[in-house]
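Section 5.1 Outputs to date
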Amino acid sequence: ERGGDFLSAGVTGLDIPNFYQLSNSSATPVVTNTIFKRRLIGVFGQANLAFRNLLFLSLSARNDWSSTLPKDQNSYFYPGVTASFVFSELIPQNSILSFGKLRAAYGQTGNDAAPYLVEPVFVQGSIYQPFRSIDFPLSAQNAFEVSNRRGNSDLRPEITTELELGFDIKFFNNRLGIDFAWYDRSTVDQILAVTLAASTGYTSQTYNLGEVKNTGIEMLINATPLTIGDFNWDVTFTYAQNDNEVVELVEGLDEISLGGLSTIPFIAVPGQPLGVFKATVAKVTPDGRTIVDNN
């Protein structure tokens, strides 16, 4: 169980400049209090097997129940399996290959949402103006209003499925090592807050985006080119590449706004990386020349 209780207070119109005390104003202090509580119950199991320091297998499974999701779909299960083969155990000891291992892993990871996203909540009232907002209580009157964030009673847990293949090789008495991995990661029902048109009565809503895929490689090279007595010169080189793509969105939507500027939205659209800018550009001819009409 996790929770928090945050309290802040402020006043405007200080009587004595630069004397920052709540009592230094005839205005009523505005007090903001945020309280949250969430509960997560999980069951986890793991089994590890090994054969002659040559083959290794690990199996795991977990099921969670989260209070931040709707009651009828607050349970989610995610298993995992990893295997490795230390092939250097089959090779006679030599001065070239010090260690060699092949590995593979497949697993899922579940994720719940932040608290209070299923139903709308009440917040302390505010009146928004161009350069500032007026917060209640005001003139001895208090007010609460429904939050601008719309609730989502269909919110589902986010599930990430990943396949990873790789190897770890060391040469010359561990003075040169290469660690390489390729991965294919797919996240289904990714939980994101998106922007809504103000005409709906809300400005944002958190819901399941669809499916986002990440494919890439990671490589780490360690080398010790110089060793003199107690002095070692170690060199490390890393390289990573990731290709991100929105595979699909929730049914009925061609794109989802993730924010951005007033005239240039930041959107998620199938076939593109997650988060691209959408803007109006001049129409051009096939050879790239701008088309200008009679106006």
